[in-house]
Inverse folding.
């Protein structure tokens, strides 16, 4: 009889506990989105400061006429090719040389240090500003680009000589364009 009571008590306890609905757990941390908002605000301020630096460079450089591309780059021609009409398209293979400097003209990478590069347009990795700049060029042209950090190496830099959020000045010489039949 005692065993029956204990069994009955355990059975009723199991039913009572089994019918209890589970309570949802509260989140451990609450994300307000403030980090993202602060990041957007910081990036807008950084871009504005870099654009002001670009306009100062353009204002001081009276020897050259600067153009603005739809990619957000400012540039001027050192050597312009007026006879060719072909610019690199998706998949074309180009060979080029370039150097990278800070806005204060300190050389980061020289043309000799980088060497001649071969690149398949939009099919290999390349700094965004440089890739977009190549699309504007014709064979045998030399162009100097003013590249905001968001189009250069951005927040991370190149993990070597270029630090975080560094705008760049690049002088690019496009040697050849080999059109690839599609």
């Amino acid at each position: 009889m005692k065993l029956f009571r204990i069994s009955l008590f355990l059975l009723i306890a199991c039913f009572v506990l089994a019918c209890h609905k589970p309570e949802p757990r509260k989140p451990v941390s609450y994300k307000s989105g403030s980090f993202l908002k602060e990041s957007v605000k910081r990036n807008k301020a950084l871009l504005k400061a870099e654009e002001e630096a670009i306009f100062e460079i353009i204002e001081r450089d009276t020897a050259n006429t600067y153009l603005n591309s739809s990619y957000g780059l400012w540039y001027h021609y050192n050597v312009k090719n007026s006879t060719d009409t072909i610019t690199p398209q998706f998949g074309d293979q180009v060979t080029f040389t370039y150097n990278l400097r800070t806005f204060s003209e300190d050389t980061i990478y020289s043309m000799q240090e980088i060497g001649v590069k071969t690149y398949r347009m939009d099919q290999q990795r390349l700094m965004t500003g440089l890739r977009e700049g190549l699309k504007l060029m014709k064979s045998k042209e030399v162009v100097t680009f003013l590249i905001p950090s968001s189009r250069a190496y951005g927040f991370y830099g190149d993990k070597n000589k270029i630090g975080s959020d560094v705008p760049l000045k690049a002088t690019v010489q496009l040697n050849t364009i080999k059109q690839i039949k599609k």
In short: The two ends are 90 Å apart (CA to CA). Residues 34-60 form the longest helix (27 residues). The chain has a mean pLDDT of 89.
